[in-house]
Design goal:
- By secondary structure, the chain is α/β, with parallel strands linked by helices.
- The protein folds into 2 domains: about 1-15 and about 215-335, Nitrogenase molybdenum iron protein domain (Rossmann fold, 3-Layer(aba) Sandwich), CATH 3.40.50; about 50-205, Rossmann fold.
- It has helices at about 1-10, 25-45, 50-55, 90-95, 130-135, 150-160, 170-185, 190-210, 235-240, 260-265, 295-300, 305-310, 315-335; strands spanning about 55-60, 65-70, 75, 85, 105, 140-145, 165, 215-220, 245, 270-275, 300-305.
- Strands 5-4-6-7 form a 4-stranded parallel β-sheet, sandwiched between helices. Strands 9-8-10-11 form a 4-stranded parallel β-sheet. Strands 1-2-3 form a 3-stranded antiparallel β-sheet, covered by helices on one side.
- A hairpin with a 5-residue loop joins strand 1 and strand 2 (about 65-70).
- Helix 7 (about 170-185) packs antiparallel against helix 8 (about 190-210) and helix 8 packs parallel to helix 13 (about 315-335).
- It is elongated.
């Protein structure tokens, strides 16, 4: 089915940008872009297998901990980390999930969950990393996001003598591995392992519950101007797959492809799912109603999912999965009218 969608697509000019994007939008789109760059770079230079890239943890002596992070780097801590700088909002959230939120001394912009995280010192964002501020905070561990932090920034932090652990949860299973890695790094093994186990159990239940249901072709819309989606390698696609959804742009080479309305009309998804940048359903989702013959419009299959649930690599993905699975069940329950596929 995926290859069929790929064959139907006809490339056309990109949609023009007519709106000024918010800083949060820029942050997300930049991270998606960096994800793509990091992935392409990894394909060229990183010879490790996927198994080798998974974090591995070895407990040594009394308190010494040796970890192999998602990038294959070995990081040794003399004792569980007590002062952590987290360089991505999802890392902040995952540290709180495993009970290590009190160990965080620095975060990046948009680290707003849980609420107390918003009160932590800011050490950077999508524009730059404040190295001077990080030095002042004296962290014993920095956890960076391979897709969201530049290689030069990570290299600079290591040059300054900091221990840097790389986090890169590309799929749902990787979220559990990330929780386990952070739990070992902070000494919160029991809570972290339980959080990881509970998360995987609920993800696998969703996969099993939807395994025999009809596949639903979906267009996932990150933003409207420019019109941006994600390919099959993104964690969002993995969440959609858990519900029996098929990303019509899964075969796109870019992780965050820019597309145009004409190509989506030709692919004719059965449902369109959008997140936007806030808790409210984006008004631009209804722009698709200009094309009443589009299957997703004809059957009123235009859906919204909270972006903080679906676009962050945390246990809140379970909330997004529940929402998407419910939406796709609604799609399946609608009968095609005569002449429709």
């Amino acid at each position: 089915m995926i290859s069929q969608f790929a064959k139907k697509r006809n490339a056309a000019p990109l949609m023009p940008v007519r709106k000024k994007l918010s800083t949060r939008t820029i942050y997300l789109l930049l991270c998606l872009s960096l994800f793509a760059c990091g992935q392409q770079s990894g394909q060229q230079t990183n010879k490790q297998s996927e198994q080798e890239r998974k974090p591995q943890i070895e407990q040594q002596a009394d308190t010494q901990i040796t970890l192999t992070d998602f990038a294959g780097n070995t990081v040794t801590l003399e004792q569980p980390a007590k002062r952590i700088v987290a360089l991505a909002p999802h890392i902040v959230e995952n540290l709180y999930t495993i009970g290590a939120g009190d160990k965080i001394v620095g975060v990046v912009t948009h680290s707003d969950f849980p609420e107390e995280a918003a009160e932590l010192p800011i050490v950077g964002g999508y524009e730059q990393t404040n190295f001077e501020r990080i030095v002042q905070l004296k962290p014993d561990l920095i956890v960076a996001w391979e897709s969201g932090n530049t290689l030069s920034s990570i290299a600079k932090l290591r040059e300054l003598g900091f221990k840097v652990l790389i986090d890169q949860p590309n799929g749902l299973d990787d979220v559990a591995k990330s929780l386990t890695m952070l739990a070992k790094a902070t000494g919160h093994n029991e809570q972290g392992n339980k959080a990881a186990s509970d998360f995987l159990s609920k993800v696998n239940k969703a996969r099993n519950d939807n395994a025999n249901k009809r596949d639903v072709p979906i267009f996932y819309q990150v933003w409207n101007e420019p019109l941006i989606s994600i390919n099959g390698n993104h964690i969002i696609s993995d969440a959609i797959r858990a519900c029996g959804g098929v990303n019509i742009l899964a075969d796109e080479p870019a992780v965050a492809p820019r597309v145009n309305v004409e190509s989506i009309i030709k692919l004719d998804p059965e449902a369109i799912i959008a997140s936007g940048m806030g808790e409210a359903r984006p008004e631009w989702l209804d722009t698709w109603r200009q094309w009443p013959n589009l299957t997703s419009v004809k059957r009123d299959n235009l859906f919204y999912v909270n972006p903080d649930h679906l676009q962050r690599h945390t246990v809140r993905l379970l909330l997004a999965i529940d929402t998407v699975c419910s939406q796709l069940d609604q799609v399946r329950a609608k009968q095609a009218t005569p002449g429709e596929r």
